[in-house]
Amino acid sequence: MEVSYCFSLTFGVLKNIYFMGNLGFQEILLIAVVVLVLFGGRKIPEFMRGLGKGIREFNDAKNNVKKELEEGMKEKDHPETPASN
Length: 85
Known about the structure:
Elements: E1 7-10, E2 13-17, H1 25-77
Antiparallel strand pairs: 1-2
């Protein structure tokens, strides 16, 4: 399965929407309506807020691991020499 461009805008008009496969504007609109009917208008912002918080926590953890790895590699390249008497 190939992931194509998400949005292609031309002069403010939505030209093509490609997600996975041939998912078009009508299909996305139908999915949005079904989600709205199932979860209601109040649950969607709560869900999106939780999703955003989860993504933020994931990115923070990813950045912390990257930082620790870079510091570890830096220490390996330049070991501290013990002070001589």
